[in-house]
Amino acid sequence: MAHQKQEEGKGRRTDEGEAYSFGYTSVSAQEKTRLVHEHFDSIAGKYDWMNSLLSLGLHHAWKRKAVAAAGLAPGHLVLDGCGGTADLSLLACNTLGEEGRAIVYDMNRTMMQVGQRKALRSPSAGRVAFVEGDVECMPFPDGTFDAVMVAFGIRNLTHVEDGLREIHRVLKEQGTFVCLEFSKEITWWFKPLYDVYSFAFMPLAGRVLAGSRKAYTYLPESIRVFATPGELSNVLEGIGFTDVSFTKLTQGIAVVHRATKGSAGRPRT
Description:
- By secondary structure, this protein is an alpha/beta fold.
- It has a single domain (19-261), classed as Vaccinia Virus protein VP39 (Rossmann fold), CATH 3.40.50.
- The chain has nine helices and ten strands.
- Strands 1-6-5-4-7-8-10-9 form an eight-stranded mixed sheet, sandwiched between helices. It has a two-stranded antiparallel ribbon with strand order 2-3.
- Helix 3 crosses helix 4 and helix 7 (191-210) runs antiparallel to helix 8 (213-225).
- The protein is globular and about 45 Å long.
């Protein structure tokens, strides 16, 4: 696993006095970063199967749709931002061919160690690299990647817009950004059931099966305080992405966002 010093990326802002949400709790920027680290450290070993359990297996279909939306081709270089256990990278390798490569980039080493073990057991071993670092401040040169994909990671960033600007920067012209994220805009008739499931069953399952009620209380709270799909689309357009769109999945529980770096309508080369 490669490691990068934060100073190699873009400079960080100063956040003195500002408050950031960690679920329903307001914390400092430094505290949020620490809490997110602790959150994923505490569940890394059970992250994949808890995702399968709590989504009733649907997260696999959601991730396949996200990778399909990236428009990958053989030989592409892909960044799996906040990629942790490498699900998107391993799916992408089915399309990237022998010459293509995926880089899992995540600030949590424990999550990536799980991903490394999965990659070594897969036919894609050798085509997935792991680099430790923060998506808000990346060491890669401008215009490096054909596509950047993020699954369920954007809402955990301390400075979401900084992370999205970095993603825009490291994409090639006409490169594609795909973000799979949860949403609070649930179909009206399904919302009451989803709320009970989120705030009663999830924390209970987290305590009993993963040994962390706190981690699975943070999960539904973080979804409720995150931007709506329309709001996130506006942020992407403000940063300079074009052809911004989103597709709701499973009554709005999850959303695939897609955007392009470059002028709208230009063909990809």
